Amino acid sequence: MTKQELFDKLKAKGIFWSYSKELSYEEAGDKLFLEYLMKYGDFDDLVVAFRLYEREYIKGVWKERLKDDKRFIKLNLMIARLFFKMDVESSYFKEVKNARFEKLKMFAS
């Protein structure tokens, strides 16, 4: 399977629900594609992504876009343990500074 084929499969499943139905792989780019794949894709799709991309690249996207999002603590724990071989507990993610949460607090005050 190619990156384009995986993108098309996920697009057909509605993974990119917050974007235009005409969104293309080129417009989305690798980072957005991987972010949404990690958040909303199936386990099997994640396995395919790790065959298509270098592990360190995916880990960089995960750290940048997903790791500090407290809405996805269980998902982050699974990804960290299974795919990045990290020996962490869920408390690791609870202690990570959440940039999104800090921005929302700032807007609320």
**Total of DSSP H or I helical runs spanning 4+ residues:** 7
Amount of helix: 55-70%
Mean model confidence by pLDDT: 88
Structural domain tally: 1
Give the beta-strand count: 0
Give the strand content.
under 5%
What's the end-to-end separation, in Å? 48 Å
Structural class: mainly alpha
Describe the structure in your own words.
- With 109 residues, the protein is an all-alpha fold.
- It has one domain (3-108).
- Helix content is 69%, strand content 0%.
- The chain is built from 7 helices and no strands.
- It has helices spanning 3-13, 25-40, 43-52, 55-65, 73-83, 90-95, 99-108.
- α2 (25-40) crosses α4 (55-65).
- The protein is globular, with a radius of gyration of 15 Å.
- The chain starts with a helix and ends with a helix.
- The relative contact order is 0.11.
- The mean pLDDT is 88.
Please describe the topology of this protein.
Elements (H helix, E strand, L loop, with lengths): L2 H11 L11 H16 L2 H10 L2 H11 L7 H11 L6 H6 L3 H10 L1
Helix pairs in contact: 2-4
